[in-house]
Amino acid sequence: MSIVYPLAHPSTPEFSDMVWRPEFAIATTRSVFSKRVRAYDWLGFAWVFECSLPPMTRAQAADWQAFFLRLKGTLGTFLLSLPAGAGGTARGGVGGTPRVNGTSQEGVVLITDGWTAGQSPIIRAMDYFLLESNLYAVTADANSDGSGNATLDIMPPLRESPADNAILDVTDPQMTARLLEPMSFSISTAQHYFTSFIAIEAVGEA
Question: What pLDDT, on a 0 to 100 scale, did the predictor assign at position 26?
Answer without folding.
Answer: 93
